[in-house]
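stage 2 :: seqdesign
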């Protein structure tokens, strides 16, 4: 039963050159039209999915901090009416740290948002320019200070392993980040995604990405510094003090059910995978004709579900429990994992095992994708 709700706001002021998320730049947005469409999509999802009280709501994008606070309040009121909220519901909104959006923070807090995730991305102005961001480092720090005064919980993102970045440079930037008073950080290595401007830049030789070995060294440095600061890794790219982990994202990684509404949103509920139309205009048209924005709705068999559960769960430091997966999906443990490869990678120090629980070590985390291909049982449907 769904206990989490994801709401996608697809609009941005500018498309970042590294971004492959479903984001769109438009000259204007009809807020009333989008209020009606998102509420209709949410109501239809509640009819289909059912579910218990929501433990988390997440506004992603795009740039949700561009949403008028009144719209956020209306969507939260509708979600609470349809599902109800857990007493400790986590309501997160992604935000860019520009002065324009920071001016909305008080209104967003009044609307019910209690956790914000700031896309700071770098504390260096030249790096922000390279990443195509619209804010400066000083503007980001000012927005962070405002956010910390308005929201109970604040996280921010940084992108590292940038072209030519040295361990000394990253250590200096990360050390500064760790003093800024947040209990959660999302620290991502720069990845060149297909169909982005950066992919074109690399193809034409405008810049050369950092090689794998130096990037792995920066990853190890990141783990060491965050652990020493009391904000250890709990997932491949996420770090938090005890009790400050993102409850919404843990829903994904622990493969619990969640509903997704808005353009391009994905959902997993009751053994069904849903995807909404990505293009905003197509989404609006579908809602108008069918009361929801669903483009595809596909039944997932137990083998595909458990494959997804393993792939998501191994991102977590806590790992996965094969016995629990066997009980949940009715598939024998011997078919979930290739036991000979598990032993090999355990002996190599890339995987740990404690009874029926397995996970990746610090040495294994940087090669997560390769290990997934090695470990997941042959009988499981590839995702």
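stage 2 :: out
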């Amino acid at each position: 039963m769904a206990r989490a709700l994801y709401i996608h706001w697809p609009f941005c002021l500018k498309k970042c050159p590294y971004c492959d998320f479903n984001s769109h730049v438009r000259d204007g947005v009809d807020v009333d039209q989008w209020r009606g469409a998102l509420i209709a999509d949410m109501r239809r999802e509640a009819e289909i999915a059912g579910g218990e009280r929501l433990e988390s709501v997440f506004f992603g994008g795009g740039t949700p901090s561009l949403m008028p606070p009144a719209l956020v309040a209306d969507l939260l009121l509708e979600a609470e009416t349809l599902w109800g909220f857990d007493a400790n519901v986590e309501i997160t909104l992604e935000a860019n740290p520009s002065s324009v959006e920071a001016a909305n923070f008080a209104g967003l807090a009044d609307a019910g948002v209690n956790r914000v995730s700031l896309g700071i991305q770098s504390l260096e102005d030249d790096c922000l320019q390279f990443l195509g961001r619209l804010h400066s480092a000083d503007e980001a720090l000012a927005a962070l200070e405002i956010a910390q005064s308005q929201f109970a919980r604040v996280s921010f993102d940084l992108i590292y392993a940038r072209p030519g970045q040295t361990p000394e440079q990253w250590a200096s930037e990360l050390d500064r980040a760790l003093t800024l008073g947040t209990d959660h950080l999302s620290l991502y290595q720069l990845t060149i995604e297909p169909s982005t401007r950066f992919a074109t830049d690399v193809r034409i030789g405008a810049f050369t990405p950092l090689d794998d070995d130096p990037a792995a060294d920066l990853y190890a440095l990141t783990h060491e510094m965050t652990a020493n600061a009391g904000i250890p890794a709990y997932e491949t790219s996420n770090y938090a003090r005890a009790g400050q982990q993102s409850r919404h994202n843990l829903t994904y990684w622990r493969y619990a059910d969640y509903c997704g509404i808005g353009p391009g949103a994905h959902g997993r509920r009751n053994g069904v995978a849903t995807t909404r139309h990505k293009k905003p205009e197509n989404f609006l048209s579908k809602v108008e004709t069918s009361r929801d924005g669903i483009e595809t709705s596909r039944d997932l068999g137990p083998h595909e579900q458990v494959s997804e559960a393993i792939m998501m769960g191994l991102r977590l430091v806590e790992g996965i429990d094969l016995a629990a997966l066997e009980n949940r999906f009715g598939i024998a443990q011997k078919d979930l994992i290739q036991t000979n490869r598990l032993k090999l990678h355990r002996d190599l120090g890339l995987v740990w095992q404690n009874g029926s629980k397995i996970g990746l070590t610090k040495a294994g985390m940087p090669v997560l994708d390769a290990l997934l291909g090695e470990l997941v049982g042959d009988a499981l449907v590839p995702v």
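stage 3 :: structure notes
- The chain has a mean pLDDT of 95.
- The longest strand covers residues 85-95.
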